Amino acid sequence: MYKHTVTSRKIRQALGAASAIAISLATASTAFAGECPADKVKPNARQMVDYKPVGVADVTLGSIDLSKQPAHIEGRELRFRKLTIEPGGIVPWHSHDDRPALIFVQQGEIVEYASNCVDPIVHKAGDLRPEVYGTSHWWKNLGKEPSFSMSATSERIRATTTCNQRPSPTPRYRM
User: Fold this and answer.
1) Paired residues of 81 in beta bridges
2) Concatenated DSSP letters for 37-87?
């Protein structure tokens, strides 16, 4: 009986250690998911392309005029948007040099073609992509299902939607 208890305890300890290692590996790989591998980063690796938007719905869910906030950033707003990119859909080439953003892939997969990465970058559900100065890119949904993403962007003011107003029922596109 005593030998059986010791064996069971060792098995539980081994399983616990294996689980901890597996979780650590999964967490480490997730932290780098959706990024350009360091050995593939290269300035001007990809030139601008002139694709038109295809199968993209961009709906502003709300915005905040940043000039009316303690930061007093004149002429800028913080926008929160939902992007739906249908299979085969294209988000055309655009730059984030003057409008930083965070984009969170909520569902599906989307492929990014960045100006500073030799290889395409695959973003999967759960990935968060910072888009900052020096980021120019285009995106394509190569999957069989729509990709849904949420984006928070600091933009120049161009619309009147605020958090207290309903967004326009017509989706609009602008990255």
Assistant:
1) 60, 151
2) -GGGB-TT-S----PPPEEEEEEEEEEEEGGGSTT--TTEEEEEEEEEEEE
Of 69, 75, 91, 93, the C-alpha closest to 151 is 91
Gap between the Cα atoms of 64 and 19, Å rounded? 44
DSSP 108-145: SEEEEEETTBSS-EEEETT-EEEE-TT-EEEEE--SSS
Reduced to 3 states, what is the DSSP secondary structure of residue 90? strand
Q: What is the DSSP letter of 53?
A: P
- Cα–Cα distance measured from residue 142 to residue 51, given in angstroms and rounded to the nearest whole number: 15
The pTM for the full model equals 0.70
Query: Do residues 124 and 169 touch, judged by C-beta distance below 8 A?
Result: no
Note the pLDDT tens digit of each residue in 58-82: 999 999 999 999 989 999 999 999 9
